[in-house]
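Recall the central idea of this unit: under ordinary conditions, the amino acid sequence of a chain determines the structure it adopts. In this exercise we apply that idea directly, starting from the sequence alone.
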Amino acid sequence: MKKVFLIQFMERLIEELIHMQRDGTAHVYLSTLNRIRSFMEGKDMTFCQLTSEWLMRFEKRLLADQLTWNTISTYMRTLRSVYNQAVECDAAPYVPRLFSRVYTGVDGKTKRAVRPETMRKLMMENSALDPKLAFSRDIFVLLFLFRGMSFVDLAYLRRCDLQGNIITYRRHKTGRRLTVAVEKEAMEIIRRNENTDPESPFLFPIIKQPGRKEYRQYTNMLRSLNYGLLQIARTLKLKEPISTYVARHTWATTAIRQNFNPSLICDAMGHSSVKVTETYFKSFRDEDINRMNRKVVAFIRSDED
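Accordingly, the structure predicted from this sequence is:
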């Protein structure tokens, strides 16, 4: 096996991702690569040097840099993906359980979903809002109505994806094909906000210059929308922060609390497995467990009377 260098290999992967227009994944790969470059002080390394001990030292450095466990996991999982691709093309030796001693999980304790009454208030909001804030509110509600659709998928919806009251699209992240029935309320929001540029293939005016740095346009709009949602939360005196990602978590959490089967929710959201879906529910399960414990203790105490 000839020597293949990690940094050079990652650079080629990033170029391929950009060519395939997978800009979000390319961004994560580049962030991981920059962390590795910093850790290696600009030096490259072969895949034979990618050992369990090296990974633990890298993890220790990320912890020293005050990164959260979720961020560390993102870098480690990205590096693991790079390693697996290198193994597949015979550029790296296979080492069983190479990443078993570093953190590659997902912390599900961060609560991102909002309560039903908060979602209801946003859906029923009829007061006059600034046009930009009204657009932010409409997009947030639409993401929820579309079964927690990811914002990137909404941004890239084409006019032709909407046929009658059915939207058919492929998830930007996984390529999985999904269909969504557009109910009356959602159609009203679409008609109120659809693209007015006859030359644009996109349904919404999020990517306004097709073919020109689309990923940058998408991220700029994402920041603008989330800033607008923060202002809406203040205006409506909501007790919880909201963002485009909150809509996805809220839909999933509402569905699980209605006792729908996790595999059905998994299919609705286009997840690769039920295991991915279940990460949305961990913090709420903890809440339910704590609530149960309080009731058990209260029951015992009531027997003292």
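The two ends are 77 Å apart (CA to CA).
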